[in-house]
Write a structure and sequence with these properties.
The protein has helices at 58-70, 90-104, 129-145, 156-161, 165-178, 205-218, 233-242, 257-262, 275-291, 295-302, 305-312, 320-330, 349-361, 368-381; strands at residues 2-6, 12-16, 34-37, 74-77, 112-116, 150-152, 183-188, 223-229, 248-251, 270-273. The chain has 384 residues and is α/β, with parallel strands linked by helices. Helix 1 links the parallel strand 3 and strand 4. The two termini are 18 Å apart.
């Protein structure tokens, strides 16, 4: 099968599909905890004001979560991948969390954790640390009140108010000491959100590391693990090596995840990844191989997903959600390529053409005929 795709130099290039769709293994057992941060499916008909009033197709959004659960993944709900802080507000996130927790109760073995942040508090409106604590408390209370587990998301408001590491320690000490259950911490780098630059009260990684480790050590019994998304494998390993026993590392490194999940022979990372939304069938098969001790099989499956992930998460990295939803559309999980906030416009047609090629090469076009038909409609809209 062939399709004509645009190239960055303006040429049109014929591309012949080469990939064989990878078949996932339902009921597979993993030797790693694997959270997929899941996207939301917009409702393009109901969304009359795309930039400021999100409208969600709840049926398709829940159906995608069932897809991930069937493949053995836990779900990281209402996180950055769902466009929190980029078109998807706290009121919408509350409804998403409520629905997902209720839906998980209908699925044997289904698990999820939900993002608790401060995004209903505008950074400019935050004047004190108590303002930030109050915002966190509201979201924690809702999630825990629904019977859910919280992921303590990095806070733009805290980054705006905090004067140094001690201020971060005060907020995190307060929230962890009063949490009703174990919490997953969330360290998101400024490549994902420029407003988080200098998080933990410093721009020096060693100082940041000391601050985070000290917080975790004080609350080791309340911290399930920490997700780190800095796109730097060496920094993740340094934090991983300092975690107390019983606290796990969740890689959020969408550039280097295969090697971090496999480990270095001493320690390994578990996963909480946005890319798992897009590569779930291949990640399922690869993690099953790893659990069987077949490292070569794991590597063979995972390796072609890395160029794809690096393309989706290329700078400006915060717009990676467009590639995630694009792949969901190509693979028939939704009938349109429309996003909350109109974010499908954040990437150009050559980017989507590259994602299409790399998706094929990674064995991630579940129905190549459908994918080609849909890609042709997008190309036509772009004048190709």
């Amino acid at each position: 099968m062939d399709i004509t795709l645009p190239a960055a130099n303006g040429d049109r290039v014929s591309y012949r599909l080469v990939g064989k769709p990878v078949e996932p293994i339902e009921g597979a057992r993993f030797s790693r905890i694997a959270y997929a941060a899941a996207h939301v499916v917009a409702d393009p008909i109901a969304m009359t004001d795309p930039w400021s009033r999100p409208a969600v197709d709840w049926d398709r959004t829940m159906a995608f979560r069932h897809h991930l659960w069937r493949l053995g993944f836990r779900i990281a709900e209402a996180m950055d991948t769902s466009q929190r802080g980029m078109g998807f507000d706290w009121a919408s996130a509350r409804e998403l969390i409520r629905r997902s927790i209720a839906e998980a109760k209908t699925v044997p073995g289904a698990d999820l954790a939900s993002g608790a942040g401060t995004d209903h508090l505008a950074p400019a409106a935050a004047k004190t640390l108590d303002d930030v604590i109050g915002a966190y408390e509201e979201q924690f209370a809702f999630i825990e009140g629904e019977g859910g587990k919280a992921i303590m998301m990095a806070s733009r408001a805290l980054a705006a108010v905090a004067k140094g590491p001690d201020d971060y320690a005060r907020v995190y000490d307060r929230m962890l000491s009063q949490a009703s259950g174990k919490v997953i911490l969330h360290w998101l780098g400024d490549m994902f959100d420029p407003a988080l630059k200098g998080y933990w009260g410093s721009n020096d990684f060693d100082t940041e590391l000391d601050t985070v480790v000290a917080i975790i050590e004080r609350h080791a019994g309340k911290v399930e693990g920490i997700k780190i998304s800095l796109l730097d494998a060496e920094k993740e390993v340094r934090l991983r090596d300092r975690l107390p026993d019983g606290v796990v590392m969740f890689t959020g490194d969408d550039f280097n995840y295969p090697e971090l999940i496999a480990g270095d022979g001493r320690k390994h990372s578990h996963a909480l990844l946005g890319i798992f939304d897009a590569i779930a069938p291949v990640a399922n098969a690869a993690l099953a191989k790893l659990a069987e001790g077949d490292k070569a099989g794991y590597d063979a499956l995972m390796a072609p997903t890395v160029p794809l992930s690096r393309k989706i998460f290329e700078a400006p990295t915060e717009y990676y959600k467009a590639g995630i939803v694009f792949m969901a559309w190509l693979n028939g999980h939704q009938d349109h390529f429309t996003m909350v906030g109109g974010m499908q416009s954040a990437r150009g047609i050559c980017h989507y053409a590259d994602v299409f090629r790399l998706c094929d090469q990674a064995g991630l076009l579940a129905d190549p005929d459908l994918a080609i038909a849909r890609m042709k409609t997008l190309l036509a809209v772009a004048g190709v």
